[in-house]
Amino acid sequence: AYAASKGAVIALSKSTAVRYGSDGIRCNCICPAGLTNAMGSSGSTDHVDMEQIKMILANTNTEVSNTSAEEQAQVLLFLAS
Q1: What angle do CA 25, 35, 76 make, to 5 degrees?
Q2: What's the pLDDT score for residue 79?
Q3: What pLDDT is stored for residue 46 in this prediction?
Q4: Buried b / exposed e along 24-56 (16+ C-beta atoms within 10 A)
Q5: Where are the alpha helices (DSSP H) in the chain?
Q6: Which pLDDT score is estimated for 23?
Q7: Residues of the chain with confidence (pLDDT) below 50
């Protein structure tokens, strides 16, 4: 369900960007691979093998990184400006 909903957000963003781009309206989405927060550090992701995920994503243009909520907020503020 998580992957499907993330894919839907990406598809909706692309569709919206194509449809309204000629009107000067931009559409962006942020889909981070990881987020460093209290939930992530509480052990809820201990079952995740980050090395295996990096191997799976090695042939894609996806970078695995954990970012803080503050770093993501800075990107959101830039896109909203």
Answers
A1: 20
A2: 86
A3: 59
A4: eeeeeeeeeeeebeeeeeeeeeeeeeeeeeeee
A5: 2-20, 38-41, 50-56, 69-80
A6: 96
A7: 42
CA distance 25 to 48: 38
Residue type, 65: S
**Beta-strand pair 66-68/34-36:** parallel
Contact 36, 67 (CB under 8 A): yes
Copy the structure tokens of residue 40: 């992530």
Q: Which residues are catalytic?
A: 2
Dihedral pair phi/psi, residue 34, rounded to 5°: -155, 160
pLDDT computed for residue 35 by the predictor: 57
Q: Give residue 3's pLDDT.
A: 81
